[in-house]
């Protein structure tokens, strides 16, 4: 793996996709969703209804965006592999 991106169109070893810099936004969005979920559950436990609704929306958007980024990256790699 180079620092910029891999020359291979697919990741042959487990964990290799984590080193690919194109996956970093998806990973960060996923972790933001986990933090948002924890914050939402905490707000719900303390009875803050407004913050719970806002946190639930932010968490859902974060998880949805992370899945979209991962799918787009997978499709980019699949198209790159079929060109070769």
Q: What this model shows, in words?
A:
The structure is a single chain. The chain is mostly helical and 84 residues long. Helices cover 74% and strands 0% of the residues. It has 3 helices and no strands. The protein has helices at 16-19, 24-46, 49-83. α2 (24-46) packs antiparallel against α3. The radius of gyration is 17 Å and the shape is elongated. The model has no long low-confidence stretch (mean pLDDT 84).
Features:
single chain, 84 residues, mainly alpha, 3 helices, 0% strand, elongated
The shape is elongated
Measured between the Cα atoms of the first and last residue, the distance is 19 Å
Please provide the ordered H/E string of secondary-structure elements: HHH
- Helix residue percentage: over 70%
Please state roughly what percent of the residues sit in beta strands, choosing from under 5%, 5-15%, 15-25%, 25-35%, 35-45% or over 45%: under 5%
Mean pLDDT: 84
Which structural category do the helix and sheet elements fall into?
mainly alpha
Largest sheet geometry:
none
Low-confidence stretches: none
Give the tally of β-strands: 0
Computed over alpha carbons, the radius of gyration is 17 Å
Number of helices: 3
């Amino acid at each position: 793996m180079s620092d910029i991106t891999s020359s291979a169109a697919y990741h042959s070893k487990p964990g290799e996709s984590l080193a690919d810099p194109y996956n970093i936004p998806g990973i960060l969005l996923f972790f933001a969703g986990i933090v948002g979920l924890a914050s939402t559950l905490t707000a719900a436990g303390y009875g803050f209804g407004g913050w719970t609704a806002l946190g639930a929306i932010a968490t859902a958007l974060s998880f949805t965006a992370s899945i979209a980024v991962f799918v787009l990256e997978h499709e980019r790699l699949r198209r790159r592999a079929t060109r070769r």
